[in-house]
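Cross-check.
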Amino acid sequence: MSFKEGDYVIILYRERKYLRKLVKGMSLSVRGHTINFHDILGKQDGQRVGEFFVLSPTLEDIILLGFERKTQIVYPKDAFYIALKLNVKRTDKVLEFGTGSGAMTTVLSYLAGEVWTYETSKDFYANALKNWEKFNLCTNVKAFNTNFLEAHFEEEFFDACFVDVKEPWEYLEKVWKVLKQGKVCAFVLPTTNQVSKLLSFMKPLFTDLEVMEILLRHYKINPERLRPEDQMPAHTAYLIFGRKRI
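Predicted model, tokenized:
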């Protein structure tokens, strides 16, 4: 593909990465080097332009570099593993509540047939819609600015569920009712005392319980001096999984 005006593009300068919308007359300067956006038009994905490379943004790039955050997002290191554990397929309807900035919704939308997401905060809800509209994402998402407890469904309506709220145990009985038999529900929580309380509520309703955290360590890309980066994204959240039992 070749880039045209209005496209979003990743501009790579050494290890630095920038997400920009191609608008004539605009430019980017990094450490004394400048790339004019006009010079990117017509270039191919992966092509070098002066001291820069131009690339199509991945979903991860869009979430990390393009989304405005009103609340902590589910980081890709956690989000894509959660989606794998949920076993999401194109025919599935997925429930989410605690939309936040819409990052996890976007990952689920990429894989599922439909995503139904609920957010009580008007500010968070509006920001998530803005993020999706900006990048033309989540067209298969039904978003609601209301509490999930106020929603009405048939029993066993959803194929998977993701929960990102402070007190998920308050919603467990309803989640159990609307989730299909044997299907997975995933939760993210920041503290161990929350996890302990959630587990005690889950045991009568879910089986195959798991608790984990994912640590990610990047390495410096100098082949002559290969070593870890000085900083790493370690603990972001505990991930909790369970499958509906009967």
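The first helix runs from residue 59 to 66. The chain has two domains: 8-57, 64-244. Passed to J.P. for a second look.
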